[in-house]
Amino acid sequence: MTWSDYLVFAAAVILTPLIGGLITGLDRKVTALIQGRYGPPVLQPFYDVVKLLSKEKMIVNDFQIFAAYIYLLSAILSVGFFAIKADLLMIIFIMSIGLVFYVIGALATRSPYSQVGAQRELMQMLAYEPLLIFVLIGMYYVAGSFNLHDIMSHGRLLLDLPLIFVVLSLVLDIKIKKSPFDFSTSEHAHQELVRGILTDYAGPYLALIEIADWYELVLLLAMLAIFWSQNLVIGALISLFVFFLDIIVDNISARMTLKWMLSFSWTIGIVFTVVNIGYLYFVSR
Amino acid sequence: MSDKSTIPFGPQHPVLPEPIHLKLVVEDEKVVEAYPAFGFVHRGLETLAQKKDFNQMVYVVERVCGICSCMHGQDYCEAIEELMGVQVPVRAEYLRTIWAELHRIHSHLLWLGLFADAFGFENLFMQTWKIREKIMDILEATSGNRVIISVNIVGGVRKDINSEQAKWILKELDDVEEQLKDINDVVMNNYTVKERTVGIGVLTKEEAYELGATGPMAKGSGVDLDLRTTGYAAYKYLDFEPIVEKDGDSYARNLVRMREIFQSIDLIRQALSKMPEGDINVPVKGNPPAGEVISRLEQSRGEVVYYIKSNGTKFLDRLRIRTPTFANIPALLKILPGSQLQDVPVLILTIDPCISCTER
Amino acid sequence: MTSDLVLISIIAPIVMSLTTITIGKAVARKAFVLATLLIVFLSSLAIFKTANLPTVVGTSFYGIIDKLIKVGDYVLLFYTLYVSFKVKEPKIAIFSILQILPLAFFELFMLKEQELNTFYIDNLSIIMNLVVSVVGPIIAVYAFGYMDHHEEEKKLAKSRQSRFFAIILLFIGAMNGIIFSNNLMWIYFFWEITSLSSFLLISHDKTEEAIKNASKALWINMLGGFSLLVGIIILYKYTGIITLDALLKTNSSYILLIPVFFMVLAAFTKAAQMPFQSWLLGAMVAPTPVSALLHSSTMVKAAIYLILRLAPTFRGTTLSGFIALYGAFTFIATSILALSQSNGKKILAYSTIANLGLMISSIGINTSSAITAAILLLIFHAVSKALLFLCVGTIEQSIGSRDIEDMKGLITKMPVTTIITFIGILSLMIAPFGMLLSKWMAIEAASRNLLVALLLILGSAITVMYYTRWIGNILSEGRNSKFFVEKQLSTIKFALYSLVTIAIVLSLAVTQLFNAIVKPEINMLKMSISVKAASGYLESNLGGFSIYPVFFAIGLAVILAFLTIKNSHDIVQTKPYEAGLNYDDSNNGYDVKNYYLPSIINEAVMTKYMNYISFILILAIFGGILL
Amino acid sequence: MIVNSREVEISNLKSEVKKYHDGGYRFVTETCLNLEDKFKIIYTFAIGYDLENIHIITDGKNVPSVSDIYSCALAVENEIKELFGVEFDGLAVDFGGDFMLGESSPISPQADIEIIRREKGGKNE
Amino acid sequence: MLDMLKSVFSNLSRKPVTRMYPYEERKPFDINRGHLENNIDECIFCGMCQRVCPSNCIKVDRKTSVWEYNPFECVLCGVCVEKCPKKCLKLDVHYRSCTDKKYNIHLEKHDDSEKAGA
Amino acid sequence: MGLKEFVKKSFSKSPWVVHYDCGSCNGCDIEVLACMTPIYDMERFGMVNVGNPKHADILIVTGTVNEKNKDVLKNVYDMMPDPKVVVAAGICACSGGIFRDCYNVLGGIDKVIPVDVYVPGCPAKPEAMIDGLYKAAQILKEKYSRKEVIVSAKSLG
């Protein structure tokens, strides 16, 4: 790593929560508008997080603190590595450290909701983690490397990997936990598990998780954006458009069942990946 | 693996604003058994009948449940009127019917919203409640209060609807109907909604009858029971058919409720057009004579039964309310085992529970 | 010098084991065993330090040992024949006879006497030897305390520990034999000894179930031995090769692939790959140190060792591709089966099979980074799995159950063991630790082979799931979160602490490890090195992984969490949210079990179908020879 | 509807209820009334839109439960048991005083006389 | 799945329906039962309201000419207003605003003052 | 705007609400829910019905306390991290309302937990509810500032 790498790393780590918070705020505003409401101010997520950070530290179990910190730090680390264009597979692996701890933190409390939520989150991870790596394999087939640097030099992945792009959008939809995929937690808590996996996190630790979610959201959006790395502005627009579509889907569908999600995501993931890569393999060369 | 988990459901739970406690025994996510515990709303208001006179009790029974409060008051008043042999004016009967049907619409819309929320369809919840506000406006404009409208008194009603208001109501109802058609389309055809409701919580006709289910719960299973056909209040003057669906699953119950909303809109239109001029109440003198009476009517959730025993004083001897949800609880406990955990809110809401009714 | 050291590492334990069996006194026995272990450990260090690699050395004792081994072969096979009658398992007899006859024919009529180089030593041998002589002694030390407690529980009138430790020592000697032997017939002999010691150790408790499972293990391993023998005979018949060095020098040809297939098949049985997995699951009835030593960290690794040895002979063939697919299939199939288990040892057993499958798959991919991945996996898996087995053993002896559901709230009951178990599981499934690093390498290496890559990815995701919930269970605090001070025996403490330290240090020092012993091996295999490692950064031509930042992040989180807990006095502890109702007595409380998906995964049914598929895959591997 | 209920001997109660059940009647409700030092329990059945009532007079002990004939009578019998202290024999599921009232609620609050003390802790969950 | 799109896009194209309370207040309906007021000057302390009140939230003391009313117990049914012989009771259309302390409305005829007390 | 000011502001801008129906007749419940819906849309003030006391700042209670749910109410209140505000919505929650003479009713929720805002009405209108919640948000901010003062005083002493 060179000095400029360190600078980029630091800049990404500092800027990402701001972007993530803004996007979350926009998400809430747009959702409200879609529902015919006025909606919260765009800065609302920041108010929420700042408030949560300065609330009383309430825990059930010391381990929760640890889990929340690791979740946040691994998210930060993965975003930082993304910014310096490191190995994407490594980034996913680092991200999954946080997720594992996130789940363990919830399992470590005795609240039935948080435990069932954690079980569901595990199922959810089972649904999207493989897909995420499938996406990388698709990129590898085009770029011949897992290094983001090499992948980005390819320019317009979207043209080669349209179906893989769909798979990644699906991952985004599962990851941001919107209908029809909000099983382990839900944005507005009106589900059978209250807030599921987040039920027993409170105050500052909930805030840490919220911030980590922003990091992951931005990371996923950035992964969508590199499908058009020739011009990253267009890439960003594409990824925001996908995000907007996810909001719309959230607003036109009910929460589905867990089994449905697992079979749906795996089918889509495997079929689309195989078809797309097969296409590359047989048609393009 | 025979490992079974136990999961609480309620009393403080966002899906179910009302406090009911279910202890669910689940295997993975499949519900094996459900043990209910009630009593978080139990106030014991039936005994208030011995402390408050029969006129004041109208306002108490209205607060048995805030959602179909008007119908509680109506049923109570009809019981007392039958006991005392009071004939209420026809216009009062019509007015009672209109308010009752408005309540049915608002109750069904409220239910639909909560139901949508239970399976995670937030937008549907918002849209339904947006439409529901129009009904609430009608109630507020005609009675002075949004939820507990306190219009029924022994001997008739307290508030009148003038022709200007009637016109406005009709206009609003057209608007509501228009918007509801879109919602109806979603409830009936949306893939995700169907996935979450079709075949979920099937209650056969025999089971529904045997377990004493009432209202949409029974109607969704093909039991043709709608007390409005017995022609209390103004229903004898109105033209309608009870709505029955056969499948007995959550989807069928949805359909019953959705169709009932349109039916209610139609009934209100009929009632407003047929409503004669005249008094809205008759003065009631004296106390109810000693005797027992049972009065029933069709609430939005089903059949409510009022049992009243009077001893000739102004205080009633015994007031007992058998509410529809109370009758639907056995059916709920029947359909819960075997379902998935994520369907539990759907199933609970599919009986349209009103716990404060159940526990009084 | 080297050859003497090697000889010591093989002969010393075997001789000592024969002595151990006669020692009745516990203290004397322990001292004696300890001394032997020390010899093994020191000799392996000495080999590591002094050996000039790779090397093929002879020894003056070749003739005697060869004769002994030839006699030993028959003794062993006739003993198994006897065992077969004793436990009434005809399959063992069938495979014994199936080996005795060809062996006799081969040795009498085909094999020409010749003086051969005794030992073949290269970095792979060193790695295996280090694993055996570091992990092995630690587990044996652990067994001191464990077996005392075990026999107390069983209320044995007469201690049978001398037999137990004798077999352990015999096994360690035999492992070293497999690792260093140059003569394939020697490998075959030691191979059979490990099978036999596995049988003896599984049936150690003499319960009906133990004997049943032990005989199952024996016959499946005998099947493997038979396959190995067939492979050797065919090899000798067509090429006249009987030594490893000669085998590795030949250019691969179709005629070589047939014996290689049989040898690989033998390895599959020993590694309990898919249609043969049942013996390893049954082997879990053995005392836990046995599971740790034989059935996860060393004996099953002999299979990996064998395939790794053979890897150059089938590089670039279709056979290789099918081996990769087969390994990947076993990986995902057993991972799925592990998902349906709540028995801790069974989960570990399935996960062991899965990881062996992963290694076999990597070897099948057969590129330099894949081989690197396989070797790294071998090392890290041996350490972490041994640690976990020992943890489960400790937990089982304390709470009387190996079911992960019963481990709820373990952290309050045995905090130290729980933390060690926690680190052990983490070292198997999350990123900065060596296992995941190797998995990363394996997946990147597999990415050209789409089907294998898909299977590996799905399998890894499942692995994370079943381990995560286990951690969650042990860390969940009970309703009355009162921490107990845990008492551990010093031997157990030593074993757990040293293994967990090794696991962490190895993961931290993965680059050094790679440069020191893995890289020379790859070099020796004459593969272009595509993996570079320096200062915590591993880089291949596909990507790179830096470890230190991740360790740094985790360390930072730990420090932050500790500071928060220590410094803030305003932390409030509440009850868990239970929808407003909080029952104080635990009987009435809510309890959530893990999801085992019985509706989707039915172990028996699933196993049946998976076995069919894997059988077809083995046929496909055989077919791969022809392609 | 003015109630004219038919009195039934306690011993005949189950056979009467069984008759209603076999006749295709739907169980509507049970109502318990205070009758000086006794209780009157009115059973209401319906066929179609018509109601029929029978009642028993009891001192509140050993009333045969009809929950084995009409399983839906279970809820209401549990309620009567708690609110009036009437004891039922053969309740299909006995909530043991945890159905309506809490631990510290008054005991059999709706009864004029108090027959049994609600037993605490004997939950049947 | 796409049935909801119609409402989504119509909502997006329209202004939100939200009533911007408290910045814009809607005019209440004129029969709203907001809160109870007593024109104490006209009150004759007959006690009718006390007798008919289902919630027993009104206390009238004829001797001391005190009319006491607990707004935190009143169900706003309006019966007292209907029964009031002097029509001095009135239901205002505006709801009573929230407070951080409960209080009784204590009206006396002598000094025409309103006192707040717990 | 300094950081401290921003923190303080965030308390009034982001009060998360948990609603507990403590034996209400549903009248107030549906009005509380109505506040969340498009017409009233409390999310304008950052209020979200989080449904989980551990995340909430404001506990809005409707209905009377009875013998069975008083423990639940206390539990829910105890699980909320400080600073927290309690709103009693509707007369039942304020005083027990029309049911205060019933045998199973204890009275208003102030019998069990401290109440910061009383919203009268039967049922309380959504506008009144919004007023109450808005006031609660201000109280929340105040409580936070007060706590901050106490903490800094501690650190000085």
UniProtKB/TrEMBL annotation, chain A:
Tell me how this protein sits in the membrane.
Multi-pass membrane protein
Chief location: membrane
Q: Is Cell membrane set as a keyword in this record?
A: no
Q: To which species is this protein native? A: Thermoanaerobacterium butyriciformans
Q: Which protein is depicted?
A: Formate hydrogenlyase subunit 4
Lineage of origin:
Bacteria, Bacillati, Bacillota, Clostridia, Thermoanaerobacterales
Q: What InterPro entries does the annotation carry?
A: ComplexI_Subunit1, NADH_UbQ_OxRdtase_su1/FPO
Q: Which UniProt keywords apply?
A: Membrane, Transmembrane, Transmembrane helix
Transmembrane stretches in the record are 6-26, 65-84, 90-113, 125-143, 155-174, 232-249, 261-282
The protein's superkingdom reads: Bacteria
Pfam (any one): NADHdh
Give the location in the cell: Membrane
TrEMBL record, chain C:
NADH:quinone oxidoreductase/Mrp antiporter transmembrane domain sequence ranges = 181-462
Keyword Glycosyltransferase in the entry? The reply is no
Sequence ranges assigned to domain NADH-Ubiquinone oxidoreductase (complex I) chain 5 N-terminal in this UniProt record: 118-152
Sorted alphabetically, the keyword list is: Membrane, Transmembrane, Transmembrane helix
Q: Which domain of life is it from?
A: Bacteria
Q: Where are the transmembrane segments?
A: 6-24, 31-48, 68-85, 92-111, 123-144, 164-180, 217-239, 251-268, 319-340, 347-365, 371-395, 416-438, 450-471, 492-518, 545-565, 609-626
Topology versus the membrane: Multi-pass membrane protein
| Signal peptide stretch | none
Cellular location(s): Endomembrane system; Membrane
Q: Name one Pfam family in it.
A: Proton_antipo_N
Q: Which family does it belong to?
A: Belongs to the CPA3 antiporters (TC 2.A.63) subunit A family.
Family matches, as PANTHER family: NA(+)/H(+) ANTIPORTER SUBUNIT, NA(+)_H(+) ANTIPORTER SUBUNIT A
Official protein name in the record: Ech hydrogenase subunit A
What organism is this sequence from?
Thermoanaerobacterium butyriciformans
Upper lineage: Bacteria, Bacillati, Bacillota, Clostridia, Thermoanaerobacterales
TrEMBL record, chain D:
Q: Which residues cross the membrane?
A: none
This protein's source sits in the domain of life called Bacteria
Q: Name its species.
A: Thermoanaerobacterium butyriciformans
What Gene3D superfamilies is this protein classified in?
NADH:ubiquinone oxidoreductase, 30kDa subunit
For this protein, the record's InterPro entries field holds: NADH_quin_OxRdtase_su_C/D-like (IPR037232), NADH_UbQ_OxRdtase_30kDa_su (IPR001268), NiFe-hyd_3_EchD (IPR012179)
Q: NADH:ubiquinone oxidoreductase 30kDa subunit domain: which residues? A: 16-90
The protein depicted here goes by the name NADH:ubiquinone oxidoreductase subunit C
- A Pfam family per the record: Complex1_30kDa
Automatic annotation (TrEMBL), chain F:
Asked if the Swiss-Prot or TrEMBL record annotates the protein with the keyword Iron-sulfur, the reply is yes
Q: Which cofactor does it need?
A: [4Fe-4S] cluster
Q: Which UniProt keywords apply?
A: 4Fe-4S, Iron, Iron-sulfur, Metal-binding, Oxidoreductase
Recorded GO MF terms: 4 iron, 4 sulfur cluster binding; metal ion binding; oxidoreductase activity
Claim: Oxidoreductase is one of the keywords in the record: yes
TM annotation in the entry: none
- EC number(s): the record gives 1.6.99.5
The record's SUPFAM superfamilies line, in alphabetical order, gives: HydA/Nqo6-like
Question: NADH:ubiquinone oxidoreductase-like 20kDa subunit domain: which residues?
Answer: 25-135
Q: Which InterPro entries match?
A: Complex_I_20kDa-like, NADH_UbQ_OxRdtase-like_20kDa
> What's this protein's family per the entry?
Belongs to the complex I 20 kDa subunit family.
Q: What is this protein called?
A: NADH dehydrogenase (Quinone)
Q: Which organism is it from?
A: Thermoanaerobacterium xylanolyticum (strain ATCC 49914 / DSM 7097 / LX-11)
